[in-house]
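User: I'm curious what two different proteins look like when written out as structure tokens. Can you demonstrate?

Assistant: Sure. I'll show them one after the other, since each token string lines up with its own sequence. Here's the first protein:
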Amino acid sequence: MRTEKRRNAETGKSYPWIVRSTAMVNHYYWYCLDRDFGPFFLKFASYFPYNAKLCLNGHEYAKRQLLREGIGFKALDNGFVSCENPERLRAICEELGPAQVDGLLRRWLARLPHPFTAQDREAGYRYDLSILQAEFSLTQILDRPLHGRILFEEIIRENLDIGRPDMVQLIFNRRVTKRTPGRFRTRVLTDGVIPSLHVDYKNSRIKQYFKQVPDVPEVGARTETTVNNTRDFSLGKRLGNLPALRQVGFQANRRLLEVQRLSHDCAMGEETLHRLNRPAEVNGQRTPALRTTDLRVLALWHLLVWFRLLPCGFANRDLREQLAALTGQSPTMITPGRMTYDLRRLRLHGMIERIPKTHRYRVTDFGLRAALYFTRVHARLYRPGVAQILPNGPPLPTDLQRAFGRIENEIDQHVRRAKMAS
């Protein structure tokens, strides 16, 4: 609020008038370290009505409480990787509320210089807390970074429409109509090589990103709801509304994760794919890889699909004869030792198992599914796809050929422009 000079039209005398305006004023920052809250800062404006901002981090509060109680933990820069007593950590987080935050402010206002003097406070002029912005986060710690990255990329791919009004109202449990203000959208932002998913609702948003931590093998998938206006959820701005607002934020995080769980099968195949394509060691026995592009391996997988129908399984000789037919060789050219080598590879990779007290084998459920999948991928995707994209492919251009042609043209144009710029 500012004053401006006005003049009475009848008397011609001037008088001051209070108006709402903007002003560039100095601000004073106090960066402090509290015994209960750790690092925080207070920001005071030097102009009436002397607005102030208090910024604190609930994770730092929890860390301080654990240190005081002697409970060990491994911390992220804004969260936790692990804790010796997770139930106590949960209780500490839940007990943080308006009373603790207000106590922090009063404790430091008694020590720091600020615009309101003792006479002002005695007259009833004092700071009162309201919620300007609040963030509520859920970090899921993953012990396998590669699987977590793949999972997060799939989540982004499958949830590009999560920002639509009909989806947003499910996440925030608020009805969205044509009169609801704000832009409803999903944004995928890339900072370096780490993407983040953003979902907007009025003045609030949910952000998801993959949190890679230096020097720590574990990583976190972070989901956080940021509320910039409590009235988006029919709540007041006074600090006393913090518990209700916390329920809104945490429930939004949980609903989003539930939607993603239903839309994406989290059974990751990356480990299985690497297990087949890399040498394995089972009970001290090492075996070579079953590479998915090896023609001999593909022939073996074709045979596993056939032999799955045999009630009594198959033996070394059965496999040798059929493998020779598929690879265009004579059975005499494939030695029993070579066949034993292949059987051992299939067995240690879990594709087949020996029938007890016999020299016969049967195909496992995993072996059947893997064999069915990879043989069909090779027959219906790899082989015809490679034939289409190669320069000496079919004489009639296909959609795939035209797409690769456009990519090559764009790359060539980019290279030419780069040379011209240099």
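Here's a second, unrelated protein for contrast:
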Amino acid sequence: MSETHPTTLGALKAQGYESRPVKEEIRSNLVNRLRAGSELFPGIQGYQETVEPQIVNALLARHDFILLGLRGQAKSRILRQLTLLLDERLPILAGSEINDDPLAPVSKYGRLLIEDQGDDAPIAWIERDARFVEKLATPDVTIADMLGDVDPIKAARGGHILADELTIHYGLLPRANRGIFAINELPDLSGKIQVGLFNILQEGDVQVKGYPIRLSLDVLMVFTANPEDYTARGKIITPLKDRIGAEIRTHYPENLEIGTSITRQEAWVARDGACVEIPDFLEETIERIAFLARADKRVDQRSGVSQRMPITVIETAVSSAERRALQHGEDVAVPRLADLYAALPAITGKMELEYEGELQGAERIARELIQQSSSETFDVRAGGADVEDIVEYFETGGALQVGENASSSACVKGFETVPGLLELVGKVGLAGAAASDGVRAAACELVLEALVAQKRISRTSAGYTRTPHQGPTPGQGYQGFDPIGGLNV
């Protein structure tokens, strides 16, 4: 191991090691990955033609940059994956708090170590993940947190005066030397902290408790911010904003396919001891809820609707289906429309409402989004399908009542009483003859919910009934199906 990783400065020199700035290191590794066609940001979807090229351009230009976007747009994940562009290991002077370059130390500790031991100075190696320092900006962050402070205990133990650099307890930024320093929600930092960041990056000096110290730090600075923060909670001071090389805008998934793929990748649905089957039309319905919310005027679009919404909705819906399957001893848990209403807390908690939305209430809006999403999914998958027999059944006094906790087989028996319903879901490809009872029940619920949204039939707490003259009252309180735990047709 000593041959591969020298343990002294002399051995490191003999190996021919040459240090390079971190931005040049990242640029070189990025060039190699681009030539090899390697994936740059694993797990990040939907940015290949938009955000990713801009980040690559900034890194090739050796620029610091900021990712500007609403919540739930993978900004922090992208920053953390920048470590993949660092070398696997980096030599530092052993014992250095700020990762001193053995060939060009910047701290007084490092300079004294070289002066005292020369080529016998000990070398340590750090992994790439240890070179990433992240800080969430909050109003209580101090300049000492970021840059450092005088440590009286160090002064007393070492016999140093307080003005000596050896008495400093370094903050986060110096400890990120020769690495990446990421600050989330940059505008939340107070102005004086931002000035300190700018000063140490631009001039290479900083004052700690009034003592001037020069630290020529080698750092890639990356930031995230929400556009709303510029006016709502703070701003980025002009000198620091001017120092940031690139402002890159992130965005939500541009289409349902990308959104569904992200949700499928991130959601935890593979439950221990339970087999879960999620119909693809239900995945689409869940994803549409987020897309509709992002266009709804009652929802605050400046705050955004996070991609975490469909992820938590599908996880909650699966949990609801799992609970039902356990109660009935079913081998497979299949979520259906009733389970989306069980996931209302996962929707309402992800929306900030405008004044009109506050008047109507988050739960009512969430119910309407589920209905509208069901209608659009049905139209896309079965637009033009003949539903007249189904509608006529309810218009002539027919009714259907199925408990939200009813088993899949009980639901299918109930849906068999509605003329043409099971045949329809088979014809339009929602649930063929080979589909399980769970998928057939979910498909039938989607059809009925779409007809409710289109005001062809009505749905109350007592179940599905004939069409009223003015349609169902929005947000009237559909709680899946009437939760009686059984079937009554």
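A detail about the second structure: The first helix runs from residue 9 to 14.
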